[in-house]
Amino acid sequence: MVSTRHRRSGIVPPHILERLAQHAPDDIKQCVLETQRANEALQRMRLTAVTALPEAADELRRTIYDAGHTQDLPGRMVRREDEAAADDREVNEAYDDLGRTWRFYKEVFDRNSIDNHGLALDGSVHYGRHYDNAFWNGREMVFGDGDGRIFRPFTRSLDVVAHELTHGVTEATAGLAYQDQSGALNESVSDVFGVMTAQYAAGQTAAEADWLIGAELLTDQVHGAALRSLARPGTAYDDPTLGRDPQPATMAHYVETRQDNGGVHINSGIPNHAFYRAAMAAGGYSWETVGPVWYATLNDHRLTENADFAQFAGVTLANAREHAGRELADIVSQAWSDVGVTPAEV
């Protein structure tokens, strides 16, 4: 079963939308205001939790729908599993990236879909008009087309799709509460598994990867590389309209705020950077070195839903010791130390 009790705003965080609502040209402001209104409506929705069918097979099952620029979900069915490509780029991108994310979890962690019980993966494209976001709503992936000036269509980025689907994995495992440090961990886990999915699909080592989230989303009119950088939090973008990336890389610059559920999209830069440093120090492929430690942590009963950074770090360190040995445990310990987090005893 996939819970829907933790409400999220999608891959584009509230602080970016608020900045655009104040500083973007009038036509973009209108797109952003419509996006914010749609997000608020989604926050109020009470969705029924999704349970996989008892007879669900251990195989990939995808269905893509076209919302037709409305907010009525799921929309018209346009492509199902094993059907030929559609005459619609966004349909095919959503179909392909749902498949890549499913295969990553299956082939790397032997996980049977998001809930580990064969949940079918559905996606709706062309949601709303110029909707500047993409999200997992507990039942399906939903993609906006972007405004065309700041954001491209949200089907463009595999790590964004994997990020959002990983929220479903977190709901089905650790259930990290979407508030303060546990909420920042929730966001960080999605970023970490999002970049690992993209690295796995591209066959990239940690050293070869760009460690960016949403690099394909920003148009050429934006001065920036992506929405977030795990390698260099706080440097993903610096643009007169979009603003400057506010993510800290260490606890020395932790942001105290009541906005965005306690800064979940901002302070996630700290555990993000810890993972990056550990993966780089370990070398090779991140999904083979540090990735299994993070995945084991999500499934570890010692991790509580209200975990702070210290507890999460402590459970990662324990898993590294228990499953990977002293060398990797020392690497994980050093990575947390580098970002100013002292692992708690677990």
TrEMBL record:
Residues 55-171 form the Peptidase M4 domain. The keyword Secreted applies. One of its GO terms (biological process) is proteolysis. Its EC number is 3.4.24.-. CDD domains: M4_TLP. Residues 174-341 form the Peptidase M4 C-terminal domain. Its cofactor is Zn(2+). It comes from the Bacteria. Keywords: Hydrolase, Metal-binding, Metalloprotease, Protease, Secreted, Zinc. It is found in: Secreted. GO terms for molecular function: metal ion binding; metalloendopeptidase activity. Pfam families: Peptidase_M4, Peptidase_M4_C. The active site is at E164, H265. One of its GO terms (cellular component) is extracellular region. SUPFAM superfamilies: Metalloproteases ('zincins'), catalytic domain. Extracellular zinc metalloprotease. Belongs to the peptidase M4 family. This is Neutral metalloproteinase.
